Amino acid sequence: MSSHREAPGLSMDPAADNTDVYAFVSPDAPDTVTLIANYLPFEYPAGGPNFFEFAEDVSYAIHIDNNGDGKADVTYQFRFKTTVANPDTFLYNTGPITSLDSPNWNRRQTYSVTRVKGGTTKILASNLACPPVNIGPRSTPNYGSLAADAIHDLSGRTRIFAGQRQDAFFVDLGSVFDLGTLRPFENLHLIPTPAAAGVNDLSGFNVHTIAIQVPSGMLTRDGSTPSDAASPKSVVGVWASASRRTSTMRERNGTVTESGPWRQVSRLGNPLINEAVIPMSRKDEWNADSPANDSSYAKYVRHPELAALIPVLYPGVFPNLAGLTAPRADLQAILLTGLPSGIVPGFQNNTGPVLADMLRLNMAIPPASSPNPLGLIGGDPAGFPNGRRLVDDVFTIELRAIAGVTYPLVDPSYTPDGAAAVVTDGVSAPEHPTPYPGRFPYLNNPIDGYSLTPPS
Amino acid sequence: MSDINRRSFLKSAAGVTAGVVGVSAMGAGALPALAKTAESADLADQSGDQGSLEHVVAYVRPGSRHEVTVLVGEREIVTRDPELARRLRRATR
Questions:
Q1: Helix-strand-coil split of chain A, %, nearest 5
Q2: Does B53 touch chain A (CB under 8 A)?
């Protein structure tokens, strides 16, 4: 979760596994938008000597649809290159890494970023440095400085970072996959145990992040800077992907060569959709598909498996949800088209009739001074499902939506169960440090492998 | 500890300067076979000398008797060539 190891095939390919996507109006530069795509789930920080890294043979990409057809109008592609300074050592570093040009750093990565827009491909930059992974106080003694030096300012007020970060996602995986129990409410579960506090099972892990910040006008269909929240031009759809070459050949001497066009193996727009809505038999197919084709998966959104399970797992707690058999037009609107004007006063993030799983961001809505982790259902239109911020509690938001709390948006006669508005896994945003850094790339420094605890 | 001192401390683990890993060439033998068919003449022409530098992967999908899919570089060429498809299948026996 939210898309960590979510598909059977992709779970065997962590370097291409897109774990989370975030899109928000930058709180410290509100005329820009920050797009973040995380990869490599469950990076154990001490996992050396071959620490986690981006794959050279994966094409990573962040896509933006600005006209509602579910197809990319702007794509940023990222390709990585690994350089080994000393082939005769097994060590990642042979001394402290105190700068990005340290001779002690044996295995470093650089990358190029390419923008595809309107059929034109332009290499924005190449040979950009990633920071090293966070090994420990002897090897990476001033990690914050190393990471800061790996933030690159390109022309056109474009800012980029690619490297290891602490995973910002939070959820009680251990409970939700144990027959859907939620620790704060498991006294009400079909197989009851005493209620308990939630556990964030991602708190000890890192991911690899690609973050890009651009002026919002670079993403709109006509190049204008969004200022009218009611205008369709202010809304973009965002998703990320990873692609591999069609063919892989493994030679007898251990070398691997690849040929043919790139094939998408991972994609992610809204959190938890491929994870918890698409059935197992179609997850890898979904990963390879385009948002423009998501109408073929819409039935799983209109009739989510979880909505039928919740009343069974919590007997007597969700009687109204148990009786709700109509197609979930609320979920389809939230996840596949965006909410049109007139549903939530003063808010819209609708991209038209095409059903496409994208993270829809109305870029004309300014960032909140005090973000509510429950986003729109918590009265904060700057949060999920209007894009997604790091602090947004997307698990609880989607759980409550599936439990029926958003169905009155399309059928005012429906009364949600009382539990639908309070159900949660009991996990909130990571506490170390609190809050998230207020500056690009916004995610916390990675946990180092020596201390194995989040930095304070 | 400075970089230099630390490096000296670990000098037993340090070695020579950076090397470059070579990439073997393959596929030169596959192109002439394709070039024997009129349908694939364009592919051979486009590949030209690159045939000696890049892998060429050709495969026939299960159940197909006419199409050969050829991968070279970042390109995929689907060629209708019953004779080549037959020869590739025969080579597997």
A1: 20, 25, 50
A2: no
